Amino acid sequence: MGIEGFEEIVGSELIQDNFLFKNLNFEEAQNLARICRQVSYSKGETIIEENSLGQALYLVESGEVRVVKGEGAGSREITRLGPGQLFGEMSLVEDELTSASVIAASEVRLLVIHRNEFEDLLAKNQALALKVYKSFCKTLSERLRKTTRELSRLEQAPAGKKKPVSRAKSKQGRKSRSR
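Structure (tokenized):
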């Protein structure tokens, strides 16, 4: 028995617990949950195919998915995602092909937010749109910062050794100094 006016919509708690939507209040999370659809996949089923046009954000409600880059013998697992984690979020804000496949690693139940319904909701609620897009920006900034740190570590040469300078950079450097 719930409190009148505070009926919880399936998925709203999962939405509020997720890093991308944690700054939403109860009503905003409820509005977002209203456009969610629950879907289930069997182990081994492909949820998103690499290089396809993404159309939705997926939030793992139960089970586990594998994020895989490449096909066949050349494929490699990037990561696994479980309850409370999401994927496909960039499909809500860009018209680009997906960068990896996502495959059900077990029986999996997902909450799906389709792009068209998401855009319609945000168009009707500018306060919600501001919060969501601010969260997207923060997430992208954190990911870019992490990638930059990782690339910096990879580019560092072992102690005592100089990094080789490519010929293209070397020639370009000489031209700019002679001017």
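The mean pLDDT is 83. The longest strand covers residues 56-62.
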